[in-house]
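Q: What structure does this chain adopt?
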Amino acid sequence: MLASPKTADGILAAKKRQVDLTQQVADVADRHARSEKLPGGASTVFDAMLDADVPPHEKTLSRLTAEAQTLTAAGSLTTANALDATIYYLLTNPTCLVCLRQELNVAIPDPKMLPSTAELETLPYLTAVIHEALRLGKGVPHRLARVSPDVSYRYGDLVIPRGAPVSMSSIGILEHPGIFPDPHSFVPERWLPFDAPEVRRRRKYLIVFGAGSRMCLGLNLAWAELYLTVAAVVRRLGDRLRLDDVVFDRDLKIVVDGFNPLPSRESKGLRVFVSP
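A:
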């Protein structure tokens, strides 16, 4: 069976990332073996792993590369994609940017002194913007399989035999017009007021972190990163940002499933100009 072009692109992207990570980890391991330090005496998380008092099989190149995959694909690129989406949609929806800046100007009188994450989480429009950007950024759209190893399950008239993997992409829910009307538009107001019955129902379908017992372990860290970064960037630079040669279909639109959502091969990334 031949893979579709998009599937092939996803496989190639994932393979390239694995090759690059393997080489980077190997470089760290070689430097560590020579007892060489980074400039300024800095160290990496892999230096700490190699120094750890654990069995040798926990320090193999394949083991460390697997850790690198987790740290980048799940721990870094996911949040970075959400931040890309947030900045893009704010800059292409100036009314939303004005509303957010007004809220942040009141909540953060001194832009050099950010409130705590807990305080930022109380800001309704900031919360709505982040929720909507997460929805449009898609999180990890890859089909994450679930398997019942011992018991068969019934769904309506369908029997799912034990051992059969079942998976779905979150995109079908995040873009479902019955849940999110006008699903391709950036509408933070769909999350306001946050405790309204229809919004509480809608929040259950924001499954960018997965759901159930296998949902993302780092979601609280991700939420904190999003609140702090968006608040800092918009409060300090919100009136000085403009997109620089960014085309949605080329640079933001998800066309490849490489575990993380990926744009086209021609993408230049999200480029933003900061005026003086």
